[in-house]
């Protein structure tokens, strides 16, 4: 009989344990379902806190999430009070149970009056159980927040089993926080990439079509920004009497600010160049227009503006810090359009101009930015100017479009799939 009673007693204990385990397992499954159906943790936090509180018997509680930028544990759900009525807790608060547990990254039970902060009053009465919310990264575990439960309904208070259950749920919450942040980052990245693509398309539309100088000249050009938008650009102008104006510019740095300087420069040049003045007068007017922007952004602008006049048989230019500007003659000679001035924004004097002979329909004007010469291969070696000039000589009798294609074929072969560190632009013109 004693054995039978003992067996019945053990059965009842086992049944009770299974019932408790089933309740915990069901809770974990339920919370997993809640988190799986929501994108934002804030949408599910109140429901999760309610489920936890009912299971362990807590009338008060809160879920805090770290705001790393402000160093605060911010309540996103509360039981017994509205989240807006619960204060955020500084992570260095030495009185708040939530802050202490967050810093230690270990769950703890606090007795009445222990680790009591005025900030926790709306969600604290009597004993407190605080459990950290953590996440995993390649560098180890990181703190993401804290779950606090208080005002236990049962005389026994909170148990080690309750603590273990809440720790398991906190782990689920930590995973949800990381997933939510990844989703938001992914959405933001997609939005940014879309905006950058729109900016790239807009910037490319600002560049004139090479055919805009026909029939006075045959031209080809290509710009490849290092990012979606950049600071390398060109412009073309028909100036009357068969004259053609050609501008190649390179804004220091690249990205959005460089693109804005580029757009301003192109707009200003479209106004000043059409007056038909010589390069020095035109670039002086341009500098007067953009000097304030260059100073404010602490950028400078390297440019070469050349006017080809086939009727007079000359090319006249201002070269403000643009080293890669050449006239290639029919025999393969390369004649550099020497610098006349420092880049715009680095000096205050008025630009100067130079002149050299031009043989119409035989000489070829070639301009390219330093991103072409500075392109690196897989070993880090730069392409250099000499190899670009070799291509120009070899293809001098071909059309401008074929010459541009040849330069970019050289670039692609040299870089071997490496991303360009700087914007790249090439322009070839024959008048």
> Helix- and strand-based class?
alpha+beta
Number of domains: 2
The proportion of residues in beta strands is 25-35%
- Count of individual beta strands: 16
Q: Could you tell me how far the N terminus lies from the C terminus, measured between alpha carbons in angstroms?
A: 116 Å
- CATH C-level name of the largest domain: Alpha Beta
How would you characterize the largest beta sheet? Answer: 6 strands, antiparallel
**Would you tell me the overall average pLDDT?**
86
> CATH homologous superfamily name of the largest domain?
PPM-type phosphatase domain
Q: What's the arrangement of strands in the largest beta sheet?
A: 3-2-1-6-5-4
CATH-scheme architecture of the largest domain: 4-Layer Sandwich
Uncertain runs with pLDDT below 50, 5 residues or more?
Answer: 17-29
């Amino acid at each position: 009989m004693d054995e039978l009673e003992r067996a019945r007693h053990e059965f009842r204990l086992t049944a009770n344990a299974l019932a408790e385990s089933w309740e915990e397992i069901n809770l974990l499954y339920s919370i997993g379902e809640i988190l799986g159906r929501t994108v934002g943790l804030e949408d599910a936090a109140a429901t999760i806190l309610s489920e936890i509180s009912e299971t362990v018997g807590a009338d008060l509680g809160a879920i805090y999430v770290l705001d790393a930028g402000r160093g605060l544990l911010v309540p996103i759900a509360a039981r017994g009070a509205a989240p807006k009525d619960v204060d955020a807790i500084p992570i260095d608060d030495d009185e708040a149970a939530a802050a202490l547990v967050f810093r230690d990254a270990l769950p703890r039970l606090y007795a009445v009056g222990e680790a009591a902060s005025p900030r926790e009053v709306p969600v604290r009465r009597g004993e407190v159980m605080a459990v950290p919310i953590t996440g995993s990264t390649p560098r180890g575990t990181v703190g993401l927040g804290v779950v606090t439960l208080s005002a236990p309904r049962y005389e026994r208070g909170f148990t080690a089993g309750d603590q273990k259950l809440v720790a398991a749920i906190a782990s689920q919450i930590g995973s949800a926080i990381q997933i939510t942040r990844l989703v938001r980052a992914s959405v933001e990245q997609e939005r940014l990439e879309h905006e950058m693509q729109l900016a790239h398309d807009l910037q490319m539309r600002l560049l004139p079509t090479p055919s805009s100088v026909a029939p006075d000249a045959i031209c080809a050009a290509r710009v490849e920004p290092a990012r979606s938008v950049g600071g390398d650009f060109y412009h073309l102008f028909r100036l009357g009497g068969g004259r053609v104006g050609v501008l190649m510019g390179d804004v220091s740095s690249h990205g959005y600010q460089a693109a804005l300087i580029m757009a301003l420069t192109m707009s200003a040049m479209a106004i000043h160049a059409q007056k038909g003045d010589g390069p020095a007068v035109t670039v002086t007017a341009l500098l007067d227009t953009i000097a304030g922007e260059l100073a404010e952004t602490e950028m400078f602008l390297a440019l070469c503006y050349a006017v080809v006049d086939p009727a007079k048989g000359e090319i006249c230019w201002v070269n403000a810090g643009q080293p890669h500007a050449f006239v290639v003659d029919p025999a393969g000679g390369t004649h550099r359009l020497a610098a006349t001035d420092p880049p715009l924004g680095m000096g205050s004097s008025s630009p100067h101009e130079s002149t050299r002979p031009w043989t119409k329909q035989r000489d070829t004007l070639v301009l390219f930015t330093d991103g072409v010469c500075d392109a690196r291969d897989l070993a880090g070696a730069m392409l250099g100017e000499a190899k670009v000039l070799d291509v120009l000589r070899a293809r001098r009798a071909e059309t401008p479009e074929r010459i541009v294609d040849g330069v970019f074929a050289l670039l692609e072969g040299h870089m071997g799939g490496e991303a360009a560190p700087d914007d790249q632009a090439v322009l070839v013109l024959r008048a």
